[in-house]
BTB domain-containing protein (Rhizophagus irregularis), 194 residues
Amino acid sequence: MSSHYWSEVIQDFENALQNEDRYDIIIKAGEDPDVKELRANSFVLCARCSYFKRALSNEWEEIDDDGNYIFKKPNISFEVFQLILRYLYTGTIDYNQYNKDVILQCLVASDELGLDKLIEHIQEYLVKNEEYLHKDPVEIISEEPKILFSSQNFSSLEKPIITMVLQRDDLNMEEIDIWESILRWLFVHYLKIL
């Protein structure tokens, strides 16, 4: 007979992360002037992430006076790295704590760090919970028509698509801007006829 006490283990790891216990790596996340530091244990990172396992197995370039590894990641924000560290330490993500932009940034960062399971979890969450992924594209265009009308590919759209969008009476855009876009489109298509 065996007993499992996963919740206790997870809680202990979460406490270690929050209290920065026994850290030996300092992660500098974000770009100047918004660089912030996170502290973590290299054993946990290497055990949970092949990216860190590879990175920390080589001669590490930067070590501070206390013997801590210095890991700089300017392309990943502090908030995103916090989410990733919590996942690495506890295997949990509280999606309610983060807006969709942070979650999408985490998806990109997870890909860079080779966190395939985290990618799967985030994709599953987004598909199930983000309503904007289920919206009709024409409805999205009605709400944000500048996305379409200012696109470099706008002039290459076919007449039925333009007609479908213009038939909507709820386009969230000034009529003069719509008119100018249509003139550009007509000019390109009129030249094709000549």
Q: What stands out?
A: The chain has two domains: 6-95, 137-193. DSSP finds ten helices and three strands in the chain. The mean pLDDT is 86.
